[in-house]
Each structure stands twice: as structure tokens, then as C-alpha cells.
Amino acid sequence: MAKYLLLKHYRGAPSAVNDVPMEKWTPDEISAHIKYMNDFAARLEESGEFVGGDALAPEGEWVRYDGEGRPPVTDGPFAETKDLIAGWMIIDVDSRERAVELAGELSAAPGAGGRPIHEWLELRPFLHMPPTVTE
User: Fold this and answer.
1) pTM of the model
2) What's the sign of the alpha-carbon dihedral 14, 23, 107, 37?
3) How far apart are alpha carbons 37 and 50 in whole angstroms?
4) Phi/psi at 18 (5° precision)
5) CA-CA to 108 of 20 to 30 Å: which in 36, 60, 114, 121?
6) Please, what is the Cα angle at 9 between 64 and 73, to 5 degrees?
7) What are the CA-CA distances from residue 12 to residues 7, 22, 76, 91, 130 (Å)?
8) Regarding beta strands 85-93 and 50-55, do their DSSP bridges make them parallel or antiparallel, or are they unpaired?
């Protein structure tokens, strides 16, 4: 089994086929989209391939350590992922091919007009450190 991160983007990825921003969707269209996402996750829970996932609020900030006894520094001249990343899902699958298959299915979530979005999802494998070899 291999873990993959599926990232949904607000922007930054190539345009989706049904490229209507969510703030222009009707309440019913938003409900249908969320239902699709929840049903997808439930099906993967049943197959044992779902690890976790959630939508992200648009708010957020960068934080870093600024030295002993000093308060953390927030924000800065960085790319704002809060403007880019809409949500995530972690899957644990048998192969890259299965991860691609599921990402393609998730890309078909409905959007404006109830039509599939065909959005681009970022698919990233988790980095696994090689085992420590001891004699």
C-alpha cells in the first residue's frame, strides 16, 4: 500500500472544463458537490483506501519561530496557500495506477449546472524514508 495526497486547488492549477468559481454556484450545486465528495470518501472508507481529508477555510496565515523569548512571526513575503489550496484527501492504495484512477474520479465532482468540474487535482505520493539497516 502507498499513501497519496490529493490536493484540490482554488487556483494555480490549469483551468477546469467547467470553470465556474464556487461563489457563483447555487446552494443546490454546492450541496451536490459536497455530497459527491462525502460519498466518494465513504466508498473509500469501505474499501480501506481512505485515510483522511477535509476542506479548508479560506482564512490562514504563515507562522515561524523567531528566536528564543520572541513571539512567533506571522505572515511574510510568501505565496498564500490559503488562496490556492481548497482541500485535501489522503488515500492508501495498492498502486500509482489506482491513485490516478481515484483522482480522475474525484475530478468529476459536480459543479455549476450539475455538470462535472473536470478539475485538475494534484496527486503526490508520500515520501517514505528507506529502512535503517543494522548489522
Assistant:
1) 0.76
2) positive
3) 12
4) -100, 75
5) 60
6) 10
7) 11, 15, 20, 22, 32
8) antiparallel
